Structures are given as structure tokens and as C-alpha cells.
Amino acid sequence: MTRVLSVASEAYPLIKTGGLADVVGALPAALAPHGVATTTLLPGYPALAAVTKRAKVVHRYTDLFGSPARILSAKIGEHPLLVLDAPALFARGGGPYGDATGADWDDNWRRFAAFGRVGADLASGVVAGHAYDILHAHDWQAAMAPAYLRWAPGPGRPAKSVVTVHNIAFQGRYGADIFSELGLPDAAFALDGVEYYGGVGFLKAGLEAADAITTVSPTYAAEIRRGEFGMGLEGLINTHAARVTGIVNGIDPAVWNPASDSALHARYSARTIARRRVNKRAVEAMFGLDAGDGPIFTVISRLTWQKGMDVLVRVLDDLVAMGGRLALLGSGDTALELAFLAAADRHPGRIGVRIGYDEPASHLLQGGADAILIPSRFEPCGLTQLYGLAYGCVPVVARTGGLSDTVIDANEAGIAAGVATGIQHDGVSPEAVSHAIARATALYATPDRWATLQRNGMRADFSWGESGRRYAQLYAKLMEPS
Q1: CB–CB of 43/139 below 8 Å?
Q2: 440 and 394 Cβ atoms separated by less than 8 Å
Q3: Neighbouring residues of 327: CB distance < 8 A, sequence distance ≥ 6
Q4: Which pLDDT score is estimated for 254?
Q5: 2-250+465-478 CATH, one of 1.20.120.530, 3.90.1150.10, 3.40.190.10, 3.40.50.2000
Q6: Does 53 carry a binding-site annotation?
Q7: How confident is the model over 254-284, as pLDDT tens digits?
Q8: pLDDT for 168-201, tens place per residue?
């Protein structure tokens, strides 16, 4: 049995701000059939209070980056969970990374350096009764764990380490003045260490230290070797290219399954897809849309430049002119929020906007809207298109990253071969996005073709089975004698 410590800043269903939580929450069950026992380490946010109320204390720190702390043992579902109970660092309002206004906490470097230190301690013999073969760190918030494991490990045999890059745009960059407080040897402040453009880079440090690097799709693994996608780290990625692997994320069918989803007004399968009409009526009611048979497009997204929302908002008049309607659920840049709300004011009954995030509503949209728009400029993997495929909500996506790897374009060849599952477009411009919407609208007007797209997507396998197997293979390779 391979023992893995999965270190992450969020995990569904305990704490979630995005797709990272879904992945981390699903991994333990995905890996278990392959002989991998996964323990998840999370920060002790207030949202975890219920699961730690009767938790066992497995280790105490009298001074962890300036304050006392404990490691608590609990459960996440059926799998082991460890929680860093450090009230001075994590017991605060707002979100995991910032206050109620969305501003980042000034001490995030300290919070997640402490978190990484604890991950490395657990993976190198500091905590009695806890030994791991692999430390698997997710994104910059956990990336200091492999760094500590390499440059300042505990007394035991250090575990092998993996860093998964869910989005290389978020790196955890700080000034050089924090280095003296990290508890690392001076030698670690180097080009092949934590130093990054004269400061400290958390993700960069983890990538340098890790025995293996994964990204969340094969195409993204190739893209981040180029300047337009590497966000300044493309040189490092190319230097360590032999360590880099792309493994597409999966989705958890226990959570995302239209045949059993309690958030839907009507449950259905690929054989009973006509029942989606009940959910479509519910979407119309929830978003104040006029009832009708024309296509409902949905957006379930952060409203940001990365997601192409600045371009999408410019083509909404075209979408309505083509006979489409839009139901949008999301939040992000204030200017984009206001622009989408203004579009809804211009087109009452045709565009409905809800600012914020609502998990049940996101399920209903996937189960009732006809197509989901994802015009991302870059998308490491993406999960919303996978949910769309599983729910018969046809993805209309930019040809990039994991979107390219998971959606088969409904061109003539794809349709003739009976394999098409959605619509792809090259580039993120008003012309490209508007043309993709026009293609979707034309296909929707041909019910047999549209139903085939839906059923193809619903029958595709994007569960964690294959992805779990590939992670298990990676761990096994790392554990081979050198």
C-alpha cells in the first residue's frame, strides 16, 4: 500500500472556492482502488470546525511561525484528514485567502509557509505514527512543503514529492525580506531554490524541489513551456521537462450525476434526456428568462480576463439576436459584473444574471441549460466542461488546455464519425466567440444532431478511474530504487 499525504488549501465538501477543491476532495477515492491510501492535510479554517470538534491531537507546536498550533486527526468522508489548527493564522472571517472584501491577507506568505512546513514535517518523520511515501502538494499554497522537504527536512526519511500545477498564473510571489523568516538555510535562496526575480516564489520553489511535476491536462503541460502560457516559469518547466506529466482531472460521479442529483427538478440519463425540459423550465424561472424552445446558454465562472468574460460580454447582443438566451452564475471583476448586469437590463427575459456562487444552482444550470460557454484564454483543465458533458449541457469552448483535450469539435468529420461532443473555437475574439455561438445555435436547430452531441458527451468517461490509475503509476515510479 502506497501512503500519500495530499497537501492542499481546500477540498470539497469542507472548503471550496473553485475546481481545486473538487479535485483534492475526489483524489482519495480515486486512488484507493489502485492501492494508494491518501491522507489529506488542510488548513484549520472556521469552515472545518464541525469535523474537528472531536478530533484527536496528533502533534503540537509551541511556536509555528510565531504562534502555537496543533495537528488534528479527523475524517473527510471515509478517508483520513489532518488539519493544521493554527488559530492565529487561519481562524478568521472572509475566505481562505482574503478578507470579506476579497483583498488578500497581508500575511498569506506566513500562513502558507507554515502550512508547507507542517506538510514537510509530516512527510519527514517529525510526527510520530505518521509516515508517508509520497508528499503530493497542490498549487502555490502547498508548494513550500516540497521546498522544506528538500532544504530543511525532519529527522526521518523524506518522502518523494509531487507538485500539481492547477493554474500556473497563481504563484505566491513575495519580497526577499520574508526569506529570513522562512527557516530555510541561506543556500536555499538561489536560482535553483526559492529565489524568483529577486524575491521569493512559493510555486517556483516547489517546482524546483519536487521529484515530479504534474499539470491537469496534457495540452496544458505543453502550453506552459511557452512564454504566452508559462507566466514567467516557462524556462523552469523546460529545464525540468522530463519531470512534467499532464494528467486530465476527473469528476466525481457521486457528486456530478444527472441520474441521482438532488439539485435537479428532474433526474435523467442519456436514455431519458428528454426529461431535461423540466430543468430547463426551472432555469427559466430561476433566472427570469422568457419561457421558450430556443437555446439557453449558461456561464458558470469567475468573471475574469482569463475566462474570456470581457470578450463574451461584447457579443451578448449577437447571442440574443440569434434567438439565444443566457443564464449566468458567477462573480469576479467588478467592471465585468456590472457589464453583465447592464446586458441583462438591456435584454430583460433574454439574459439573467446572478452574481455570486451557489452550488445547487450550478448543478441545475448544467442539468437544464442547453450549452455552456467557456471562452477561456487559457484553461489548465477545466471542470465545468466535464460537468457539461456529463449532464448533456453541450460545451462551447476555446481550443486551449484541458478544453482542447476533453471536447471533440462538432465539425463535419466529427459529426460524420459520430464522436463529436461540443464546439471548439480558435482564439478568444468577439468574432470567434460569436461564430461559435452561431454554430451552436444552428446545430440546436437540428434536434437529432443536437441530441447526438448530448448523448456522446454523457456516455464519455471522465470519471477518476483512468486519472487515478495514472497518478498511482507516477507514485510507483517515484518509489522505484534509483
Answers
A1: no
A2: yes
A3: 283, 286, 287, 289, 296, 297, 298, 299, 352, 365, 369
A4: 87
A5: 3.40.50.2000
A6: no
A7: 889 999 999 999 999 999 999 999 999 999 9
A8: 999 999 999 999 999 999 999 999 999 999 999 9
